[in-house]
Design a protein that fits this description.
InterPro entries: Ald_DH/histidinol_DH, Ald_DH_C, Ald_DH_CS_CYS, Ald_DH_CS_GLU, Ald_DH_N, Aldehyde_DH_dom. Dimer of dimers. It is an enzyme of class 1 (oxidoreductase). The active site is at residue 248. By secondary structure, the chain is an alpha/beta fold. The protein folds into two domains: 5-250 and 456-474, Aldehyde Dehydrogenase, Chain A, domain 1 (3-Layer(aba) Sandwich); 254-438, Aldehyde Dehydrogenase, Chain A, domain 2 (3-Layer(aba) Sandwich). The strands form seven sheets. It has a seven-stranded mixed beta sheet, with helices on both faces. The radius of gyration is 24 Å and the shape is globular. The model has no long low-confidence stretch (mean pLDDT 98). It binds NADPH dihydro-nicotinamide-adenine-dinucleotide phosphate. NADPH dihydro-nicotinamide-adenine-dinucleotide phosphate binds next to α8 and α9.
């Protein structure tokens, strides 16, 4: 049976490229190619820009409330097609359907709905200056580029297009080459909902296509999600014409479990923050600091639950709660970190090997892995692994753990477990991270701004401030009296 080939999505429909260049996409749970995708060649790139210019002219002059109505239709379609879209995400990413079914599409739709609701609330200001006055207008930027990672492909496309479109911009989105289909499905939904042609275009390909977006002079802003090292390159290219940037990058986030914590709850958080989406989540709490007095009970419960509650297998099986890593290369990278952990003296308590479950024997699985006896200088404690690998560290003192938790160039997220409310807030206020949880981990509602401190990012996604970052302020000074001129 021949496999389908998808094309770039430009101006409300699929557009064939001229070069005939394609790439293939592999299902991580089977290791088999499932479809091909055409690369956005020069012809497609040119069309994408011309179309986005035309789309922007139309969309930006519609009233915000008209945009709200159209975006809300897209939200309804996303929710209606939840199961179909969740399946697309499972086949592309290898994550379990039990997650994709209730998280990926839903949280994407929530964000578009949130920004659709906010669109008509954007106000300018007016201020009197003597007998003159000025007012300000919030105007759209123009064409914004979105570049996405492979772990939450559809959700990332929604999180970038939602505020961009609500503010009246056009968006050209490039998904990761490993997970290209979700963005096409979103584009089809936008078109069906009535978003004018050219307002949301999807270009496909690897780094070169991303690079083209970041250097193109017609693009005003780049919102990027991916690795820190790629983010630096993107920011550098974006500087060529001083594009605005939002950077959602990697993390090595701490979870601090104090002696008065509810240990079972803290174990739940640590497992969620290391094994959900088989560990491929940017905010993961991969450095788990546990107070010495609860260390043993924490580790005992963690190991017992890890050894008995994980079900790896065909991610389309609703019982499965551990999926396959995105690719063979990525699995090898995760395994190489595990080897380094062993070599550098950490104790491997569980996992550390590949899995070959009966229902998905050729998938790129890695068993949930827990290291103890970790020290702050170990590679597994310092570097983002992006797989199901948890490092547990012991601490004795509040100030000690705060400074150890902050001893990293990254600052995406952090969590604290304590029943002492003063301590919980006191500690969280001293952690240098943008997304923080107290007695919780991982929830990220549309209303809450998210983004990193230090090298974990620039700017925010979600929350009210994000809509502002897709607009620019125009000040208009109005003279009410004759100009006093010395000339
Ligand atoms: P990458 O940085 O490898 O890629 C991200 C995107 O950038 C992909 O679409 C990629 O294309 C593209 N790209 C690669 N090189 C360039 C370039 N020079 N110029 C422009 N675009 C380029 O990240 P991953 O896809 O591997 O994603 C994992 C990373 O994403 C982790 O570090 C994770 O922490 C981070 N992440 C951060 C989140 C946050 O909100 N802070 C959320 C999710 C993930 P292609 O893949 O096709 O080569």
């Amino acid at each position: 049976m021949s496999l389908p080939t998808y094309q770039n999505y430009i101006h409300g429909k699929a557009l064939a490229n001229k070069s005939r260049e394609t790439f293939s996409v592999t299902n991580p749970a089977t290791g088999k190619v499932i479809y091909h995708v055409e690369v956005a060649d020069e012809f497609v790139q040119k069309q994408a820009i011309e179309s986005a210019k035309a789309g922007f002219e139309k969309w930006s002059t519609m009233t915000p409330i008209e945009r709200t109505r159209i975006l809300n239709k897209a939200v309804a379609l996303l929710r209606e097609r939840n199961d179909e879209l969740a399946t697309v995400e499972v086949l592309d990413t290898g994550k379990p359907i039990q997650e994709a079914n209730c998280v990926d599409v839903e949280t994407g739709a929530d964000v578009i709905e949130y920004f659709a609701g906010l669109a008509p609330t954007q106000l300018g200001t007016q201020q009197q200056v003597g007998s003159d006055f000025f007012y300000t207008r919030k105007e759209a930027l123009g064409i914004c580029a979105g570049i996405g990672a492979w772990n939450y492909p559809l959700q990332i496309a929604c999180w970038k297009s939602g505020p961009a479109l609500a503010a009246g911009n056009a968006c050209i989105f490039k998904p990761s080459e490993e997970t290209p289909l979700g963005a096409i499905k979103l584009a089809e939904i936008f078109t069906e909902a009535g978003v004018p042609d050219g307002v949301f275009n999807v270009v496909q390909g690897a780094a070169e296509v991303g690079q083209w977006l970041t250097t193109n002079p017609d693009i005003e802003k780049v919102s990027f999600t991916g690795e820190v090292s790629t983010g630096k390159k993107v920011m550098q290219s974006a500087a060529s014409n001083l594009k605005d940037v939002t950077m959602e990058l990697g993390g090595k986030s701490p979870l601090i479990v104090f002696d008065d914590a509810n240990v079972s709850q803290a174990v739940s958080a640590a497992m969620l923050g290391n094994f959900y989406t088989q560990g491929e989540v940017c905010t993961n709490c991969t450095r788990v600091f546990v107070h010495r007095s609860v260390y043993q009970s924490f580790v005992d419960e963690l190991i017992s639950r890890t050894n008995s509650n994980i079900i790896a297998g065909d991610p389309l099986d609703p019982e499965v709660n551990l999926g396959a890593l995105i690719s063979e290369n990525h699995r090898n990278l995760v395994l190489s970190y595990i080897e380094k952990g062993k070599q550098e003296g950490a104790t491997l308590l569980t996992g550390g090997h590949t899995l070959s479950p009966e229902s998905a024997p050729n998938g790129f699985f890695v068993a949930p892995t827990v290291f103890t006896d970790c020290t702050d200088d170990m590679t597994i404690v310092k570097e983002e692994i992006f797989g199901p690998v948890m490092s547990v560290l012991v601490f004795d003192d509040e100030q000690e753990v705060i400074s150890r938790a902050n001893d990293t160039v990254l600052g995406l997220a952090a969590g604290v477990f304590s029943q002492n409310i003063q301590r919980a807030h006191r500690v969280i206020h001293q952690l240098k991270a943008g997304i923080c949880w107290i007695n919780s981990y991982g929830n990220s509602p549309a209303e809450m701004p998210v983004g990193g401190y230090k090298q974990s990012g620039v700017g925010r996604e979600n929350g009210v401030e994000t809509l502002n970052s897709y607009t620019q302020t125009k000040s208009v000074y109005v003279g009410m009296t004759d100009i006093e001129s010395p000339f």
